[in-house]
Write a structure and sequence with these properties.
675 residues, mainly alpha, MetI-like fold, 2 domains, 29 helices, globular
């Protein structure tokens, strides 16, 4: 066997080190002081648990309210009483609400719901399909038009035509408002650093807040119904279009901008003729992300009586009907894939047309010609009942739901011992001990320990953010419930990162594996969070572990992709040097690739935590404990609405705290990697 050849640069480095003499390595405690300090804090916390277990945990009964929660109840009652008399709620909020309701109601009567005195909408299902397919073709081309046609027919034959169209109506209205507000905001942010500094923290909070947390305050202001559903969707979906548009405009080639200015372009001409066209694809990416965020929020808005597919999903979950929830959830997935692919292809098609120099006049004539069959379809749908109301002769959805229930019963029967064993293993060895540590120690001890851990992991800025968030949580009177939620989030995040790191390493080191798995992960990311509750309920029944499983399934795709990208981003030169030095596969992973992709892994932990938190609180629907359960109860019981609203505030504070700790840790890790 021939000897391994040592690269010249490695030999040169070795000679330099030999001439320089032996380098004194810092002692172990200095190299790992942060890790040792974290272990020390945990040990002291565990000792405190043994001494003070069960004391001052601030646990409260389910119907017990503190002063803040009672004042929130009174505030709700006062707002309800003054909706017709107070100028702000009657004229301002009422005007906004009435405008949104007018748009939604008219759109429903036009496309999905009976338009009195007609027993059917103004435009029946055939006309709606023709219009939407024509729009898809105009924006994204033939393949996306075919995908749109198949998707719309699929949701119709599954028995959810009206709910699906209602979902599209709310989503499109919300996205249109987001675009009208978000694009100008992105333009202003791209031109003003001071405005960006002011707006960015607001957008951070809007993106950090779990979707569930928006529902209670918006229901308090707008009441329940379509207006509240659209308003909450706008707030949740606005940040992506603003952020990504600003990024796209800022990254337009400076040379191109300077050339345009030198030719005498005004600021508006520069924007319209140079920056917007060159940032068009990035802006469409922002529109895609806003659309997907809006769709996920529309389904959750069923809690505040928002129309759409969220209503049947919520009803079937409440009835523990896995098959029925699966069919309604499948319709959500179909719409998500359709909207995702169409908006993505819109940017790609426009770029291809520009690159290939396609004559736009030919395409305009084709689009105008296709308006003829669209008009015929609209006429038929307004004239004949069979083209107005979607055919209900097919029982495809019912048969599919029954089959899913049968499969679920068989799977549960076959795998119950495995799932029960896995659930018990995690509960008894991880979840219960951690909950005992976090939620069974005095609040002051837990608060100090979390402060110390935040400072050690994220630095002094994380310390400040953690202290503020802890004060907010204490002010809500829901410290113990917040600690229970924190426990669930940490366990789910740990499981997410274990899976994400293992699969991410596999993808990062193997191109074929990445090619096979990435489309699956992309598809999983398009699914709204509601959908993940269905398989969780099927496998683990009602309980806190059901919420944990759904959270892990929801968060794994984003964490896995970030880890894979970090592994692949390690310098090939470094990898080749390690291989030439005789490193085996395990050494390559543990000594080279993982250490050099630490910042990506910490970012994956940040995103994983936020995704987990947003899903864990939704898990209140399927027996999850803590803050999510209180939010759900607050919607169903008026006497504890204030407690549910306080829980939403606590969820937001918890999310901001976790986000800041992990974000600052990622920044610190990135700085250390470059020094």
């Amino acid at each position: 066997m021939s000897a391994v050849q040592t690269p010249p640069e490695v030999e040169e480095t070795a000679r330099s080190a030999e001439l320089a003499g032996p380098v004194e390595r810092p002692p172990f405690w200095r190299r790992h002081w942060r890790l040792l300090s974290i272990v020390g804090v945990l040990v002291l916390w565990r000792i405190g648990l043994a001494i003070f277990r069960g004391e001052d945990t601030l646990a409260v009964g389910g119907a017990e309210l503190n002063d803040l929660q009672r004042s929130l109840n009174d505030l709700k009652d006062n707002i309800d009483a003054q909706r017709e008399t107070n100028w702000f709620f009657n004229d301002v909020i009422g005007g906004i609400s009435d405008s949104i309701n007018w748009v939604v109601d008219n759109a429903q009567e036009l496309l999905s719901q009976p338009a009195f005195p007609r027993p059917v909408p103004e435009i029946g299902w055939l006309g709606v399909v023709a219009i939407v397919v024509w729009i898809a073709y105009a924006l994204a081309g033939v393949r996306m038009a075919v995908l749109t046609l198949v998707s719309l027919l699929a949701v119709g034959y599954l028995g959810y035509w009206e709910d699906s169209v209602d979902t599209l109506i709310i989503t499109i209205v919300a996205v249109a408002v987001c675009f009208v507000i978000g694009l100008p905001l992105g333009i202003l942010m791209s031109r003003s650093k001071s405005l960006t500094a002011v707006i960015t923290p607001v957008l951070d909070v809007m993106q950090t807040m779990p979707a569930f947390a928006y529902l209670a305050p918006l229901a308090l202001i707008f009441g329940i119904g379509a207006a509240a559903a659209v308003a909450v969707t706008i707030i949740f979906a606005l940040p992506p279009i603003a952020r990504i548009s600003a990024h796209g405009l800022r990254t337009v080639a400076p040379a191109t901008v300077e050339a345009s200015k030198s030719l005498g372009s005004t600021s508006m001409q520069l924007l319209r003729q140079v920056q917007l066209p060159m940032a068009r694809r990035t802006i469409i990416v922002g529109l895609n992300q806003t659309t997907m965020a809006a769709l996920s929020m529309v389904t959750i808005a069923a809690f505040i009586d928002g129309p759409g597919l969220g209503v049947p999903v919520l009803q079937e979950l409440a009835a523990l009907d896995v098959g029925g929830a699966f069919v309604a959830g499948l319709c959500i997935v179909i719409l998500a894939i359709m909207l995702d692919r169409v908006t993505t292809a819109t940017g790609e098609r426009s770029e291809q047309a520009t690159r290939m120099g396609t004559d736009p006049r030919v395409r305009r004539w084709v689009l105008l010609g296709l308006l003829v069959p669209v008009g015929i379809a609209i006429y038929l749908s307004r004239t004949y009942t069979r083209y107005a109301a979607f055919p209900d002769g097919s029982d495809l959805g019912t048969r599919l739901a029954n089959r899913v229930n049968s499969i679920n019963d068989w799977v549960v029967g076959q795998l119950s011992s495995v799932t029960e064993g896995f659930k018990n293993f995690v509960s008894f060895n991880l979840l219960n001990p951690l909950e005992g540590l976090v939620a069974s120690t005095p609040w002051w001890l837990a608060a100090l320990a979390i402060l110390a851990l935040g400072a050690l992991i994220g630095g002094w800025r994380a310390l400040v953010s953690t202290a503020i968030c802890e004060l907010i949580i204490l002010g809500t009177g829901l410290w113990n419930e917040s600690m229970i939620t924190l426990t669930t989030v940490l366990v789910a995040a740990l499981m997410t990162m274990v899976i994400g790191i293992i699969v991410g390493i596999w993808m990062g080191r193997n191109r074929r594996v990445d090619t096979a798995l990435r489309p699956i992960l992309d598809a999983l990311q398009t699914m709204p969070p509601f959908v993940y509750l269905v398989p969780a309920l099927a496998l683990f029944e009602v309980g806190r572990f059901c919420a944990i499983f759904a959270a892990v399934a929801f968060a794994v795709p984003v964490a896995t992709k970030l880890v894979a990208d970090g592994i692949r981003g390690v310098s090939p030169t470094t990898v080749e040097a390690a291989e030439s030095a005789g490193s085996n596969r395990w050494q390559m992973i543990t000594k080279v690739q993982l250490p050099m992709s630490r910042s990506s892994i910490v970012l994956a932990a940040n995103q994983g935590l936020l995704f987990v938190l947003s899903m864990v609180v939704i898990g209140g629907l399927v027996g999850g404990q803590g803050l999510g359960y209180l939010v759900v109860r607050g919607f169903s019981q008026e006497d504890i609405f204030g407690k549910g609203l306080a829980a939403a505030v606590a969820i937001t504070a918890l999310g901001v705290m976790l986000d800041r700790i992990t974000r600052y840790a990622a920044e610190r890790t990135g700085r250390e990697a470059t020094t």
